[in-house]
Protein 1
Amino acid sequence: MIGYIIQRLLSILLTFGVVSILLFMMMHAMPGGPFDATEMPLSGAAKATIMAQYGLDQPLYVQYFKYMQGVFQLDFGIPYQSPGETVLELLGRAWVPSLILGGAGVLIGAPIGIGLGLLAALNRNTWVDYLASSIATLGLTIPVFVTSMALILVFSVWLNWLPASGWGEPRKWILPIVAYATIPMATYARYTRSAILDTLNKPFVMVLRAKGLSERKVIFKHVLRNSAIPMVTVFLPMFIGTATGSIFVEAMFRIPGLGAYFVSSIVTKDYPLEMALILMITVMFCFAYFLADIAYAILNPRIRLKEGTSK
Amino acid sequence: MMSANKNNLYPQKSVKKEKSSIKSQIARNPLYYSWRRFCSNRGAVFSGSLLLIIVSMALFAPLITPTSYEEQKFLTENLAFPSAQHWMGVDDLGRDFYTRIVYGARVSLSIGFVAAAFSVLIGLPLGAMAGFFGGPADWIIMRIIEIFSVVPPLLVALLLAALAGGGFISIVFIAALFGWVQVCLLVRAQVMAFRSKEFIRAAQALGGTPAYVLFRHLIPNSISPVIVGFVQAIPLAMMLEAGLSFLGVGIAPPLPSWGQMINIGINFMFFYWHLALFPTLALALTVLSTTLFGDGLRDALDPTLRG
Amino acid sequence: MIPALELRNLSKTFDIDGGIKSFFGGLKQQKTAVDNVNIKLMPNSVLGLVGESGSGKSTCGLMAMRLLDVTKGNIFLKGTEITNFSTAELKPRRKQMQIVFQDNYASLNPMMTLSQIISEPFVIHGLHTRTERLELVADLLEKVGLGVGYTNRYPHELSGGQRQRVSIARALALKPDILVADEPTSALDVSVKAQVINLLHDLQAEMGLSVLFISHELNVIRSLADEVVVMYRGRVVEQAPTETIFQDARHPYTKELLNAIPSFVPRQRIRRTFMSPLQIAEAIPIFSEEDILPFNEQISSQPQLAKISNDHFVEAFIEQRRTQR
């Protein structure tokens, strides 16, 4: 078991290392730094000073190592677009709306999704199933900015019930959170439905019913527990995935969250901010996958007890 | 040493010849049954038909639209709502909106198909190699896949799109870059499942080399995952393109893209909501129909691929 | 007479490791599937290889076909050692030995017609023209009892017994001298079993095949094999002509297997209990050196094969001749 954990850890670290190098190189391949002639024409000397100040004049690999050094100390540098604060501070500000959006979205969407999936699975092939599955499919296939647009059109433009943008008061939060919640809801509905259906088809459920166990107990005590494994392992990466899915919602509703800053950092070629964001999210994904793997290994006794396979 | 007559339990009967009722039976390739399964799935058939309509509209775009997509002919009727002359109204630059929407279909669908094709081109050989050779080859390919999984695809796509400056070809490549993983995984799983089956062993026992086995047996039996992977990659590519265009780093105007049009539509949505509505509907319908069609195809070809 | 197929001191160990874990120096456990097995398959005869699941008999068969790599030992095909032959060197020799598997459905490529399946051997070795191939396929189908009308069928349209016949037809296409049959009837119903066994019997007589028949069913073996080798946990524990095994088995495991055959006469049914490995190990016969025929190069304290008559070998403890004072 320990061996497996160490194995996964090393593997994830390797992946992370490769990714960080690739990202770093990509970032610096972007034509035109932030101090390009067109944006902010500077004289040669002034430009050189600023480059030196930001450390942009040194060879790439030196820059990389210095940067990674900083990263491990949580120092991401200073964003070009607002030099008054560090990247960390800026992100600290931006973090909050995204967290609320994502957190609320998942917390609302997941239970609804699980409920839908459960309903669909238990009433397989009836209209309940079709309805629930359709909702889930719609949620997954229609891109989130399309749903946001649809929501805005219906509730803001035509019905005029809710505001369409901004982030000041909680009232403004409703639409974005609903728009956002469709993703976890749909994903969970799908997973839950297929996981429960798979379990229901297993012979042991038939045995339980034959023993005379009430349907209620069969479902809640046995089926759910068995279906929990895939759901649990998918939870963490999805939670992290909120960070990226939120980009569209934030753009749609003009919310000053991480996603919005990311888009602006791309446009302004703000290296420190971009790198920091991508790295952070990559780290979170790595961590999430790692935890999910471990959780799966722990929960699934078949993997836990069998240390390896013979050829 | 002749084998003696061993007749303890099995009396020596001569081998019975099986009656061959050739006349009433036609040989049925396994794929034929998949076709039947597909046809019985009403949702899939419906989506498929819808998709066919959309594709036809895209193909015959010049024939069914009054003007070209960039002619700003109707500036006097700017932002007009749908009418008999302009089925979807006029956009903010005086262009017939219906035309723009139809040509937008061309852009989305072509990006979808081409990106999906590239995804298969990359994913199929990698998946086959990973599944067949296992060991170190598999490990490396799985690591590569892991790299592509932990990086948030959208963010990096944004980065790459900004780097490349948008444009049709770069978007296609970016979409393919993130689409091959799914195909690769599907093919790998299929090849691994078949690798230990006895007919592969039999082929080896007959004297087949690994290359022969791979090309004659494993890859033909992987058609299902490849088709499924291809068809499922299309909506993913389309959504990526729409997303990138929406954020401003995708297809540049005047070439119409639904994502781009939605972005513009936001600015006008409170009054001229038709500019936001139609691209939204178009995108939603197309993605929905391709996804459902893909799911139906998957269920028909191999229900075990689900999830 | 040179044996058609000879396995000499054959051993196979599997490494159990977690893939990349061993790369980082993880634990490497080993499982010995086959331990020092010696088998001589004579031309134009049937040798039955018997044992329960996990005894290593299938592994032996696969190694004999060079489908699995050998850990230790040698394989001789008609006198030529093929243990370390490369794929290229093996290819021409593959025409001389073929295999039929237990899982008849997985043995056939579901996307190929029977005609394609049976002519695959010709395709691989580049033999015969198209028309010749079609004729040969038709002949083979007749030979195994399926009519010509089956040529364009697909495997999923056949029953288990019919698929097994197809596997046999494919195996015989190249007219091999040796046929390894790995539990070909274990997955079939009793009546179909009978048909396939009769088929194999007829074909063996007709083509002079040397058959290595691997099975766990003793009654099947009895009706087909000339000689029987009993395997237990990777080792050969008894070897003798068929009737000798059935009438004069000496090893406790063989006796257990014989007792386990279901009886058709109710009155003769006995209550069966199966001995644990420990009990079997304790019941191994002990012979003193004088009683047995000279055979072993070296007498060890571990159980080893002892020759108790011209063609009967049993695994036993051999007590060394007491040296004269």
Protein 2
Amino acid sequence: MKIFVTSFALLASLGAAQAEPVTYNVDPEHTWVIYEVLHFGTSTNRGRFGVKQGTVQIDRAAKSGKADITADTTAPQTGVPALDAQLRSGNFFSANEFPTGKFVADKFEFDGDKVSSLAGQLTLRGKTHPVTLKALRFNCYQNPILKREVCGGDFETTVKRSLWGISFGLEFFSDDARLLVQVEAIRQ
Amino acid sequence: MKSLVLASALLATVAGAHAETSTYAVDPTHTFAFWEIGHFGTSTNRGRFPVKEGAVQFDRAGKAGKAEITIDTAAPNSGVGALDKHLASKDFFNAADFPTAKFVAEKFSFNGDKVAEATGTLTLLGKTNPVTLKASNFNCYQNPMLKREVCGGDFETTITRSQWGMNWGLNYGFPDNVRLLVQVEAIKQ
């Protein structure tokens, strides 16, 4: 695996002049947005949203990239059906009116040949605010089942949900929501 | 809230000689066991198990406690149906033969009046090994809907699954280490 990445990086630097961005499609079985909010200042309530579609372009030689990921706000999964219904409702994500949330990143930062952060815009309930996702880990590998290169990692940020107008229940769910994003994307 | 905790701590100190153990029943809508395991050294696969039942006994003045929490191994939830089936199968949790996992804590350590660690045993696949859960959050509050005291927090540990005989995929490079994150809230009885 390491040998693969190294030889790829070597190849990329040899061909630097004509380095091209590579496109990856997000794998919805290994891509989830998990939120964490504090419940009554006591324990952490977690839930996940699935991803409808997503593409990532990475130009490892030029150290640049783009990502466009659409999450499905109509199907939150907390393990508690009544809470899922609350989250879909007008009190939280208004999923009828806004069935998706979107993260568009146009600035990738690299640490060596690994992506270290993604800066872009998060749109929820029709409101857009800047967000930077930090990589906790990033890696590319040759997936033995798909027989393709897969790049991905874990990314995180903490947002204030009230910025997007999600202000219901601030007395029992914290305004700070930690977002943990698992991403794996398959080379096209 | 803080004044309630302080007042009850004060009361407990004053009444030190006959400090009492309170029993709390686990609230299954705010109690889940989450796992985190690395996927091809790249990203983290996460999921949760629901709790079937659980009771916590807790003596804040005496700084002692006990907990017994039963997890439903037949209902892993990763968001991916095929993975959930695989996890419930003989390759992993063997839910047909072992429909529950159990954490029993016999020793609570405290930091001030907050629980800092719960030490006990985890039984999985019929095997029992010692485990210590560390608290990253702990608090008690008066729940305005239930009109009862609720105590809870977030606890975590990292286990090596092979200790319980859960070896599937180790030879393909799937990690032995699994991080467990346990959200618990329990209602005073």
Protein 3
Amino acid sequence: MIDNGLLVQMLIGALLGVSVYLPLAAGQLSLATPAFYAVGGTLAALLSTRVPALGAGTDGSLQLASFLLELLLGGLLAGGLALLVGRLVLRLQGIYLAIATIALVEIVRVAILNLPFTGGAIGIFGIPQPFPTAAGYLMPALGLLALAGWVCQRLEVMPLGRAMAAVRNDELAAGCMGIDTTRVKLTAFVLSAVLAGSTGALAAHFLNTWNARQGSFDTAVTMLAFVILGGSRSWLGPVVGGLLLTALPELLRPVGDGRLVLFALVILLGPVLFPQGLITPALLERLGRLGERAVASDQGPSGEGKP
Amino acid sequence: MIEALLQTLLNGAATGGVYALVALGYTLVFSVLGVINFALGALFSLGGYLTYLLMGGAISANGALPGWGLPLALPFPLALLLAAALTGLASLVVESVAFAPLRRRNAEPLLYLITSLGAGLALVNLLQMLMGAEGYAFPAGALAGLPAAVVVGGARIRSVQVLLLAVCAAAVLALTLWLEHSRSGRALRAVAEDATTARLLGINSDAMLRLAFLVSGGLAGLGGGLIGVSISLPGPYVGIGYGLKGLAVLVLGGLGSVPGAIAGGLLMGLAEALVPAEASGWRDALAFAILFAVLLLRPNGLLGRRLVEKV
């Protein structure tokens, strides 16, 4: 029931979950991830269909190097945008920040829909594929997730990550301790955007078409649900939440028409049944103790699966 | 020229009135509970579909019961009011599944966001399952007896927009009078001001909360029915767009402010109406661009109260 294509989608879900988690780890409820995902995907779609040097060869396939370059550029563009927008919106707090980021998502969606070169409502199609089958995307997706997980794991011991946790617990107190809270929040916001942008570039190739619907308010909701259902206290939470919730609508396919209603009910009941998410702090502590016992190799996620 | 301008302004005011209804729906719940009910957009859709069904509209070929319709055909005003009341009841159901369980254990506000969105998504997908994904136009003669246009000061304007504006104005007026002068309205404002003190004074704050949800859902349902009859129902997701615009209006006017929601709605509707036709594709972004600008200049909204964090 779970084929390679679905596995890649699940990994993309996990990556987007981590992207929503990063600002939340600094106490900022940002729903901007779909905007950066859409920006990264649009850039990759444009580059590989309009720029001959980065586009498909005569046989219709894409050079692996151009693909990786597009992942990088997608991340950089999204990160640059986040740097500009973040300075403005991160002054806002709580629900105001959430609503401002929803506004950003809508502005980006309408822009992609109306700009003269992004293909309007149909979008950009025939995006060249670097791999002949879906299985080929498993390695880059896993690699990106491994990288994101490694960064998150490193953050837990780095001064920046500590500062993020301090801002999350009490922004005022963190400021009084001499932490530059604006810079910390902005860094988390930009990291989140870079990850979302690269993921968008990957998804654009994987999906073969790209349009404004890829980054909408609905997707923002679903991505936040990845984090809340998985657990927002560790990066493992959004990974688990992203994998499970992306697979769920497909696994529910036998149910027929009612599957989307069931999926929505899972989102509705999740916080009621698991207020701390599936990966709770208690579970993490138990995992940590297991890890101490087997000190051998417990550095982040399984394997450095970079292509 | 004058005629076109008048029509444009009236269109803007009518749409703005609907935005104000949605924003007031958010405001009622926010002022009592301090959280935003993200299921409101879905309730807006529900109101539109209920109005359609109550007027004797039939389910399309892609619905769960193709061709089926209620064995009654109410006139529009009656159908609209009944649909709004039923949507209010649906809003109570949303409260009991998405809000009450979290409230009982004092959960963090973030969780309400997810549960209310989940409830909204469930409702929209349920509508899609029952009614199909395609658009619905209201039965012909929905507004029989109403002339297509009226002449105001020598200018002919579409009367359905006048109707929209009038109903919105009446609803807003009734809501304001109720909040200001009735016993239950004043109790609601007391709970919004300070729930603990209100409870000590013998006000049943849980009942007031449910009342806020009931009225809030009713306002959203009213908006859905009005948009359905004046434009059409493009699909179950119709309310999501209006819900988002309402959110923009809510922040524009300042969270929890009733006059702010009304002024913000009108302002937003008029601003959108003045977007020239060549740039109509960008119209949907305007509300959010304005919101963005306002948030940066006045982080508490145009008429919002200034919140200072106490240490």
